[in-house]
Amino acid sequence: MAVVSLKEIVDAAFDERYGVPAINIVNDLSLEAVLAGAVEARSPLIVQTSVKTVKAYGSKVLFGMWKTMTEGIEVPVALHLDHCPERDVITDCLEQGWNSVLFDASTMPVEENQRQTVEVVAEARRYGAHVEGEIESITGVEDGIGSDTESHRQSLETAVRFIETTGVDVFAPAIGNAHGVYSARPDLDFERVTQLVDATRTPIALHGGSGLADDQFADLIARGCAKVNISTQLKITFMQSNLRFLRETAEPTDKWDPPSLFRAVRQDLVDMTGALARKFGSAGKAS
């Protein structure tokens, strides 16, 4: 239990065909809440930090929060740097203690992406850390990274060559998924996940998980999506919880007690995490 490698978490999920919530936190309250939700659900958890959040807090402060809050934790957890195109930020986080990174070089030509990802994998291995890779930008802007224009989808052969050459531990394909809020049910390329898994036996990361239908989650997880990214859903839950509490407090009572606000928001995030673990099949897997 406690802090373990990303590979340990995703390999178990891949073998047993369940998904592990990989949740982007935004501050100390959200970090503590998703950890508490995972413990309550007896679920493994991948905590993700965006480059924006790392820069806002500083890697040393953010990792200090992580280290303190995970001391003695009773479920397997890993700390992952999400969508990072900046090599210096990757180095900084690995030096601090992150045990997983997504090197996002998807805007580069595949050959250059592949060359640099090989270097990032070698760097991560020196710290005992693991790497997620991608060769196509996932549609949508998340924390200032990405584009709303759908990128060209590479061939299966190109993706397989990238995975095998770089040695990435998790691969994030573009399958019609998108960051942010879906305006309609997305048309997903389920078969591409099966083809990648059959060809490489590599766990797949599902990006743009917020807002997918339950049947879509179930299908993709059964095919090998062992890591399920959730960012927008946490942000919406966090903001709406704050807004709801403040509205309910302002009008009838006009009492302003920040700890009460924090408790309410925390509980909503704990409940969200537990619901995701049950939906993805990871609840109880840490027992």
TrEMBL record:
Could you tell me which InterPro entries the record lists for this protein?
Aldolase_TIM, Class_II_FBP_aldolase, FBA_II
Tell me which cofactor or cofactors this protein depends on.
Answer: Zn(2+)
Pfam name, any one: F_bP_aldolase
Q: What is this protein called?
A: Fructose-bisphosphate aldolase
Give the organism, scientific name.
Luteimicrobium album
